[in-house]
Design a protein that fits this description.
Number of strands: 29
CATH superfamily of the largest domain: Metal-dependent hydrolases
Shape: globular
Structural class: alpha/beta
Radius of gyration: 25 Å
Number of helices: 17
Number of domains: 3
CATH topology of the largest domain: TIM Barrel
Distance between the termini: 42 Å
CATH class of the largest domain: Alpha Beta
CATH architecture of the largest domain: Alpha-Beta Barrel
Strand content: 25-35%
């Protein structure tokens, strides 16, 4: 488990050297390549020799032996390293396999992924088996190690036990601890979390923060306790404060925080024009946000906002590799690195026309190349469709709570006093209050309240997609809510909508009820249809997928609906506990 992620065996290394001696042939020769050279900070010309998944030479020479070599003349193209996404949440309706495949078409060939869903849904043995399987795809997949569930769950001490967390930290595919959504506990004296941070540091791994709105003093304290990077800068001043305290600043452009353009404008107004301590992330956006690309889109925005071209590419490549101590493998085109290379038609257009990932073509001349690997067997990896063997009925839909939750925006919830009659089976469409239920995926408990600000004319909505995999029901009509639940049950998990007794929208999520096995392009289409439908029904915020995810997320204020009950985040108390069914 502790061996290096890319440790070529002695035989492989001898083979690599033999290519330079002419005893073996490269598998791919890129001739006349104009490429981004980070050492000189210039565009240089060279011939690039590749053997399987590794660059074995970059320079003026040509190989003596080309018996087994594909040769590509790169005249007229510009080559840059494969882009790196350092903060992926690969479970947002899509799955890690399909996200990696889709991202590679836009040149993002390496992802550093959240492990939260794996930690919550699978035992450690199955999760690690899945990590091994992910090594067989052309993209490179690294992972984080979470220290908390970012919500109040049952048996958290077992899921995030010292043994489990230590095993994750020790895994060779894990590059960092975090993100630290539970940092208030850390500041309040949680020595176990501090010990895990110390262990990560001992292993030369990074700690990723999650510090929205943190003051200068708080940022300094968290740096002293081990944080290395934070992606929650929302203003130029936030960037400045993080840089002053020694952080690597992850500039964000996501479906709920498309901050990059304004960040760059405010940074430039403040005179911040040095970018070596900055990296890019799309922070696990909803599928439709990726229609225009991933890290390539951020590089394009940076260039458009006046960032020097070299720096724009560096923030999506070498800066990330240096931060995570993987520069010897990733982030530049040089001898010994993994052969992740993007082929551009122009240095100002970062979306590649062709892409190499681990030396394999995944895109060629604008067309995707089907991966030459066996399809992933989700069932064999422990990812089963949901088996819901219990029923929901009208008795479960009883409402007597004195207050509900009000959506201030996509993800921020506040309490409000309920003044309407909740004893009816159908709520009026003259207001934006809906019945809301969070129910245990195993049917053991439920919590019922009203939700204000989600929709005005939504009959029945059910989702197995949530932070913890528990079920969310929303609607004006109790009968349609139950009907949507029944359809969700039939399809083995997903998002379903019932209107006047008929199912009118659905996104099947047949991997644990939280992910689809369909291609990202298909999920984008279905998500766009759902988003359009919900807008017609009164949803007025930025991203309904993230609303579903964050109803239970206690790393944001003010009120959350969790496995423990309705939770006051600021006072760290359960206001109304869940009810056993």
């Amino acid at each position: 488990m502790l061996e290096q992620r890319y440790r070529w065996k002695n035989k492989h290394l001898r083979d690599h050297v033999s290519i330079l001696d002419g005893k073996l042939s490269p598998t791919l020769l890129l001739k006349n390549a104009r490429y981004l050279n980070h050492a000189f900070r210039k565009w240089k010309h060279a011939n690039i020799w590749i053997y399987n998944d590794r660059i074995v030479y970059v320079g003026e020479m040509l190989p003596e032996n080309i018996d087994q070599c594909e040769i590509m003349d790169c005249d007229g193209l510009v080559l840059v390293p494969g882009y790196i996404e350092p903060h992926a949440h690969p479970f947002q309706l899509y799955n890690p396999h399909t996200l990696a495949s889709y991202a590679s078409q836009f040149g993002t060939t390496t992802l550093i992924n959240d492990n939260l869903m794996l930690a919550l849904q699978l035992d450690k043995k199955k999760a690690f088996s899945f990590l091994r399987e992910m090594r067989n795809i052309p993209s490179t997949m690294y992972w984080w190690c979470r220290f908390d569930a970012q919500t109040e769950i049952h048996n958290e001490e077992l899921i995030f036990s010292h043994g489990n967390v230590k095993s994750w930290l020790e895994h060779d595919a894990v590059l960092q601890g975090g993100e630290l959504t539970g940092w208030p506990k850390l500041l309040d004296g949680d020595d176990l979390m501090l010990h895990w941070i110390q262990e990560a540091k001992r292993m030369r791994k990074k700690i990723e923060g999650h510090f929205p709105g943190a003051s200068e003093k708080t940022l300094a304290k968290l740096m002293l306790l081990g944080a290395d990077c934070d992606h929650e800068a929302m203003t130029g001043k936030d960037v400045y404060n993080r840089l002053m305290q020694g952080y690597t600043v992850s500039l964000r452009y996501s479906s709920i925080r498309p901050d990059l353009p304004i960040l760059l404008e405010e940074m430039h107004q403040m005179g911040i024009n040095h970018y070596d301590q900055m990296i890019f992330t799309t922070d696990g956006s909803s599928p439709s946000f990726y229609e225009q690309g991933m890290i390539d889109q951020m590089i394009r925005i940076a260039i458009d906002k006046g960032v020097p071209i070299m720096d724009a590419y560096n923030m999506g490549t070498i800066n990330i590799a240096r931060h995570y101590n993987i520069e010897y493998l990733h982030g530049n085109i040089a001898t010994g690195r993994i052969a992740n290379i993007n082929f551009l038609t122009d240095e100002t257009n970062p979306t590649p026309i062709s892409v190499l990932a681990k030396g394999k073509w995944v895109k060629r001349d604008g067309k995707p190349i089907e991966e030459d690997i066996k399809p992933l067997s989700w069932k064999d990896e422990g990812f089963e469709p949901l088996q819901i063997n219990w029923e929901l009925d009208q008795d479960d839909l009883q409402y007597s709570m004195p207050f509900g939750i009000k959506m201030e925006n996509t993800v921020i919830m506040k309490p409000y006093s309920i003044s309407i009659d909740v004893s009816v089976d159908q709520l009026s469409t003259s207001h934006d209050e809906c019945f809301f239920m969070l129910v245990d995926r195993h049917g053991k408990w439920r919590i019922n309240t009203l939700l204000k600000g989600f929709a005005t004319d939504l009959d029945g909505f059910a989702s197995s997609f949530s932070n913890t995999g528990d079920f969310i029901l929303i609607g004006k009509n109790k009968g349609d809510m139950i009907n949507a639940f029944h359809r969700m049950k039939e399809i083995g998990g997903g998002i379903t909508v019932s209107e006047n007794g008929s199912i009118v929208q659905e996104i099947p999520l047949n991997i644990l009820g939280v992910m689809s096995d369909e291609k990202v392009e298909s999920i984008i289409k279905k998500e766009n249809e759902l988003r359009h439908y919900l807008r017609e029904k009164g949803y007025k915020h930025a991203d309904p997928i993230y609303s579903l995810l964050f109803f239970s997320s206690t790393h944001l204020p003010y009120i959350r609906v969790t496995q423990q009950g309705i939770y006051d985040v600021m006072n760290k108390t359960v206001l109304f506990p869940t009810i056993m069914r």
